[in-house]
Amino acid sequence: MDKTNFPANSFEQFMADSIKGYDGRVLVYVDGEDIRTAIAAAELVKYSSSKLVLLGDRKIIEDNLSRAGLSSGSIEIIEPSSSDKFDSYLEILLNRFA
User: Are 50 and 81 in contact (CB under 8 A)?
Assistant: First the structure.
């Protein structure tokens, strides 16, 4: 990764570290509504072939991605509460973090 301006803080460093060794895989971030996630995602798509999935309110995420200079077309957005897979997502999270 070109480290000229990225990562600029510990959150972006966390995001950058999260893709190491996962190139080409699907990366899901549950904090999709956080503007810092959008900023980091805008950089990550430049350096990784991984598919990024952000969870949260579509409008908030799209607005944040736009502010970060990234089209929402390059990232999948899932609204868990309105997804037909909500129960599956909940079960995965409960099993993973219980």
Answer: no
- 32 exposed, middle or buried (CB, 10 Å; 0-12, 13-18, 19+)? buried
pLDDT digit string, tens, across residues 47-84: 777 888 999 999 999 999 999 988 878 899 999 888 88
Q: What is the DSSP string of the chain?
A: ---SSSS-SHHHHHHHHHHTT-TTSEEEES-TT-HHHHHHHHHHHHH--PEEEEES-HHHHHHHHHHTT--GGGSEEE-GGG-TTHHHHHHHHHHHH-
Q: What is the pTM of this model?
A: 0.70
